[in-house]
Every structure is written in structure tokens, then in C-alpha cells.
Specification:
Chain lengths: ~190, ~190
DNA sequence: AGAGAGTGAGAACGGGCGTTCTCTCTCGAT
DNA sequence: ATCGAGAGAGAACGCCCGTTCTCACTCTCT
């Protein structure tokens, strides 16, 4: 009963995601991933060459899922201001997930940022991408200086992410949304 | 040539601080701290009972130093608005330190938050303390709802901290300060 | 039918960890 | 001068990790 390569990969990634995200990357051994995924160690190593590669695949998958969740909140919103605020609604929903543990990129960066250039790079890219998206939304909303507005909004978002995970509360998303509306009032043309 | 207990403790803490902060808590072995501090393993274990206790002492020391640095920026400022903005000047100076690697509490929480209740507790306490301080400053500035203003300011601060460490730039402190002035304009009586 | 490539389960290996122990030495009190 | 408490250096211990290897087995293709 050999398992399909694609499904084996997905099983491993799903198990790695749950374990890495919950306990941190270094605290999880390959053996735990083997047990959780049901994929043998041998197969695991031929699918992903090393733990480092698996970590990279984990982060890339997180990035995809995250972008999809963001889009699902932003896309339905019609007026440009509402699209920006939808990003904070997304944060609120995210924070409420029972297994929420902050941003996987921030956490991994904190663990391995100095020692693994690849992880540092992926974290940077993930955040830069979010910034790009917010800048687009700011532009669509007619902000005179979209990059500046986006920068302020990203500070509120990142702050809400770390605060919600340490304080174990979804509230920071609501506060960030409130603060964002004040900034929109100040920086968007009436 | 036996060393004084107090100075031995301080040498260990200084070495642990540098290593834990740079490489993360889990990545640093007791042997590395022994080598860096010049204090024998035996002595080290009789000063601090275990690595967990040393981590705790490290975080408590960080908290003290951090509060002192914050106070050194806030105290000289006279007008209440300037005292709030001084917090962001502090962030800017902090981010510019060559060994800056983000917030030790956020990093440690990301590594050990799920597995070590003590670390989670210390991180929470550190952040709550900062929030308390900002609330005081907001109150002194005459904010109608000091807790709310403080909450917004803390979001900007936390956001600047993580962003500056991932992007390796002190700029987020300046942006956070700008955004803070906009919020002060909106929420402080003229 | 039989050879061979590839499988899963788990043992094996080399290395690093936190912690304790051993051994030798120093030095202050008697 | 001698005893003993405590020191430093580092070996030792038991455990866990990432990775590879072994081995019996199961399919697939000829």
C-alpha cells in the first residue's frame, strides 16, 4: 500500500506545519514529523532532502495560505476604504483560530534569523509582500502618499500580531482597526 | 584567584545575555556560556540552578535594562506630548545598536512560549509593564481615554520592533513616531 | 516465475546537549 | 604545618537529534 508522492508530500507538510508552528522549529524532531505524518523517515528524506529544506517548504506553504486568507477577506469588499479595513478583519479572524500562535515568520526568524540566511530571507520576503499589497490598497483608496500610509498600517498589523499572541487575545485586531480608521481619516482625501 | 560571587554572577549574566540574545535561547549551550564568561560549569550551576533559571534571570535583566533605557529618554522630556514621542526616540536609538536583534521577550516567547509557562509569563509581564507606562504618559497628556491611546501606541511600537529586526533597519521607529503624532493630533485635546 | 527496484520499520551512528562527577589544587583557619 | 572546604578544568553520563543504513518484504516488468 504505497502512498502517492503528492499525497505523501502533503501529509508531511501538514504534519510539519502543525508541529513547527505550535512548538517552534528547533523543538520538533524529524521523528515527531514521521510519527505525525505516517510517512517513513526514508521517504521523508527523499521527498525533502533535509530538515532545512522542510522548514523552507513549511514557510512557503504558510505564505501561500496566509495570502489566500487575506485575499478572501479583501476581495469581497467593494469600497477602497473597506478593502483596507478588511485586512484588519482578516487579522481578527486569524487571531481567533484556536491554534493561533503568532506569525510563523516572526517566530522562525526569532529562532533562526541569525544562523539561517534562508529563513531571514523568507521572513523578509513575506513581510515585503504584505507591504506591497497594503501599498496597492492605499493607492486604490487614493492616498496622496500610499507607501507612507501602507507603512503605518503595517506597523499596526505587526503590532497586533505579536500582541495578540503574547496576550492570547484577538482584541488587538479590533484596536488596530480602530487606529487604522483614525489614520485613514487623517491621510485619505475626503 | 577565586572570583567574587557578585561579579561571577554578573559575568555569567553578561555572557548569557549576549549569546541568548544573538543566537536564541535554545541554540546556546551551557558550555558556550561557560567559555564566554570564564566561570566554571560547577560554579555556574551553583549560582543558577539550571538553564531554565538562567534564562529567567536573563529575561529579568533585559527587562530592567530596557526600562532604564526607556526612562532615560522619557524623563528629560518636559511637555507631556514630547514625553510620549520620546518613547519612539528611544526605539530609534535601540534599533540602531549594532547588535540589535528585536525584542528578547518576543524572540524567547516564539521559541518557548508554548512549552515554558514561565517564559510566556515573563513576556506577558514585560509587555503589560510597557503598556502601563504608556497609559500613564497618555493620562499625563490629558487624553480623554488614556488606555485606548496607549493601546494604539503600543501597537505602533511593537510593530516597529518586529519590522526593524526583520528588515534590519531603524526606519520603522521614525515611521511609528510619525503615525503616533497623527494619533495624538486626533486623540489629544488641543 | 524470477530478478530488481523501491518500500516501511526501525536500528545504528556520530555528535551535541544539560547536568553531574572526579580529580587535583589552592588557601584560610587552627 | 596540616586539615578541610571549596575552587577550576574537564571527563563522564544519559539522552535526544539529524541522517543513514539494514533488512525483510512487495510489487512490477519481462
Amino acid at each position: 500500500m504505497t502512498i502517492d508522492t503528492a499525497t505523501a508530500q502533503e501529509q508531511v507538510l501538514a504534519a510539519a506545519d502543525a508541529l513547527f508552528y505550535e512548538r517552534g522549529v528547533q523543538a520538533v524532531g524529524m521523528d515527531a514529523i514521521r510519527t505525525a505524518s505516517g510517512v517513513s523517515l526514508k521517504r521523508l528524506y527523499q521527498l525533502f532532502g533535509s530538515k532545512d529544506e522542510l522548514i523552507e517548504a513549511y514557510l512557503k506553504r504558510r505564505d501561500e495560505i496566509w495570502k489566500t486568507m487575506l485575499a478572501e477577506h479583501v476581495d469581497p469588499a467593494k469600497d477602497p476604504r473597506g478593502r483596507i479595513l478588511a485586512a484588519f478583519d482578516f487579522l481578527y479572524d486569524w487571531f481567533q483560530q484556536p491554534d493561533y500562535r503568532g506569525c510563523a515568520f516572526i517566530n522562525s526568524f526569532g529562532e533562526l534569523g541569525t544562523v539561517s540566511p534562508r529563513v531571514a530571507e523568507l521572513a523578509d520576503a513575506h513581510k515585503a509582500d504584505f507591504q506591497r499589497r497594503l501599498t496597492e490598497l492605499a493607492q486604490e483608496a487614493g492616498a496622496p502618499d500610499p507607501a507612507r500610509l501602507a507603512e503605518y498600517l503595517i506597523l499596526l498589523s505587526e503590532g497586533a500580531i505579536t500582541r495578540s499572541s503574547i496576550a492570547r487575545s484577538a482584541e488587538p485586531a479590533e484596536h488596530a482597526r480602530e487606529a487604522a480608521t483614525l489614520l485613514l481619516d487623517a491621510l485619505l482625501p475626503a
